[in-house]
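Chapter summary example.
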Amino acid sequence: MLGARLALFLCAAVLVQPCAGTPFQWEFTGSLNIPRAYHTATNTNTATMLSNGRVLVAGGAGPRPETFPYPGLASAELYDQATENWTVTGSLNDGRLLHTATLLFDGRVLVAGGWPDHTNHGPLSSAELYNPATGTWTRTIGMHVVRVDHTATLLFNGRVLVVGTPRGDPNSAELYDPATETWSFTGSTTTPRFGYHTATLLPNGMVLVAGGYDGTNHICANAELYDPATGTWTATGSLATARQDHTATLLANGKVLVAGGANDTAILASAELYDPATGTWTPTGSLNVARWEHTATRLCDGTCDGEVLVAGGVSRESSVATAELYNPALGNWTVTGSLNNARALHTATLLSGGFVLVAGGNSAGGGFLASAELYNAGPTKGFRYRPDTGGRIIDFRAR
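The structure predicted for these 399 residues follows.
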């Protein structure tokens, strides 16, 4: 044991980098107070990183006695990276899952839509705002259309664009204005969007929407662009492979990486890149494990080269623990350390110091998870780092 600790110390003395051959590992951190899946998510399946550095998760499906398959939770929790603990905060006014959560420029969080508690029947149009200063939720004006498993994108002008609905007009899109706390319709999409698509804010301010279910209730390859300046949608190049429940990650070079997902017949390992300059998709290296309902996190730039970490998801019929890294320079994937718990429908959030926080989800057996894990991809690769220590490394453990 002493020899192992000494080896770690000597390794840390050299540019604070891991020993050669030391794989990245996942380590458990504090568990959620309530097991949950389908909880608070943005377009990239991340929980909400607040301006104070804490991470907010709200709602989702959990182990409750109701007979409805997915009873919506109203509870919300905060993760503190300094203590590695979760604490309960104010509850939502409406229990919900498959909703969206968007951090606004003023620090509040907008939660919209989703599937309700079993006593309410049908998707929700309601929306509410979380105030981190008071830890409370207040209702705001609801959307014009009920929406579930839709996307919500914060635009450069501070408004929020929502797309996708299983009922009513599937081509409809709405904008939320935080200044007036009102919703207004904007241009209609060129392709019906029933959900399970992705939406990515591009560096030029436009929003790329790709895949998901179309108006015939089939998984599509269509992609389109929303222009906030004109409020209109235009078709762009289609995906090479139709897919839903995939991930879409904006890379440092401005391209968008789409990975995994499922189509009408199979779970996918393929990945492709969208180039905004040409409006076209090109194949890139395939995942080592076909998966959907996974997470994808773009890691820190510089020492991490903007790699993308994909973790968990469903492969075949069960949640998996495998994780892999995409290298944008090489266009390939390499296997990295596996999660301690197989999980899908979880969230993954990039924290300060380069950690990735994975929380909740469905286990391989289908149950709800309360566990959470940390992956270290920061400049102190291989060692424990906590921001409250002023950047000092206080715990030498191989990761």
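To summarize the output: The domain at 23-381 is CATH 2.120.10.80 (Neuraminidase).
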